[in-house]
Design brief:
Length: 269
């Protein structure tokens, strides 16, 4: 057969492969393909962009004024603002211990002023202030809607340069029986704006992580939705107050309570 009769070579799209359908269902990096002995340039650039987004999410300071306005609009009162002993994002990242202790709690309402409040809510920047700005007020609103019919809620508190344990000091100062903390989770290479929710019953300084419950991966539309997370939190609050404890002894009872819990496949922490 002459060269004139030979079929023309067919161009092959390196991204049109059997992994395409699976790749569309997850944010994980799977089936990235090859270009010689390396990854395709597009996949390398996607990785670098995700890494940059994660670094930015960690280092960008919280816009407290914008968040405070959004939190006040939820209707639980104007938020108080506290900060940890870490004086900058750099120090906060280098010294986790400083992020667990408050610099000053004098701006909080006195225990007597908050008498009758069952649940306190702290919004902490954590390792992703961006997550708190993107989702904090909306999640707070969903949690408030789920809890207000049953419990008295204290005015929210915003905590900056904060780790979860800082909120134990806040909860003790407010005199609330149960504390809910919304905090920016450590950014990954798939998600840089995920919120976690930590619940501690009878909060006080020195509580161990085993005495907390966590609902993680809150970042709709790809993660847990606000109402779904709020339903789990409401179930945990009720369970903690009936049990008198939180942590490893307390399990998610949102389904048994008839609350609209997570859809199949969602994984609360």
């Amino acid at each position: 057969m002459s060269s004139a009769d030979s079929p023309e070579p067919t161009a092959i799209d390196p991204y049109d492969d059997t992994w395409a359908a699976l790749r569309s269902t997850t944010q994980a990096r799977i089936g990235l393909g090859r270009a010689g002995d390396a990854l395709p340039t597009r996949r390398v650039l996607e990785f670098q962009a995700a890494h940059a987004a994660a670094r930015d999410a960690v280092h960008e300071p919280l816009d407290v004024d914008t968040l405070a306005a959004a939190v006040a609009a939820v209707g639980l009162g104007d938020p108080a603002v506290v900060t940890s002993l870490a004086t900058s994002r750099g120090e906060y990242l280098r010294r986790p211990d400083l992020g667990r202790r408050p610099a000053d709690l004098s701006g909080l309402p006195a225990v007597g002023e908050g008498e009758g409040a069952d649940v306190g809510i702290v919004l902490a920047d954590g390792l992703s202030p961006r997550a708190l700005v993107d989702h904090g007020a909306q999640l707070l609103g969903a949690i408030a809607d789920a809890l207000r019919p049953t419990y008295a809620l204290a005015a929210p508190v915003i905590a900056t340069q904060a780790r979860v344990a800082l909120a134990d000091h806040v909860g003790a100062a407010l005199g609330v029986g149960t504390l809910v903390v919304l905090i920016g989770e450590r950014p990954g290479l798939s998600v840089a704006d995920s919120l976690g929710v930590y619940l501690t019953h009878a909060p006080r300084p020195g509580r161990a992580d085993s005495e907390r419950n966590c609902v993680s991966n809150v970042h709709p539309p790809d993660g847990l939705g606000y109402e779904q997370a709020a339903a789990v939190v409401a179930g945990l609050v009720r369970g903690a107050r009936e049990l008198g404890a939180s942590g490893v002894r307390l399990k998610d009872a949102s389904r048994s309570l008839g609350l609209p819990g997570p859809e199949p496949g969602a994984q609360p922490g």
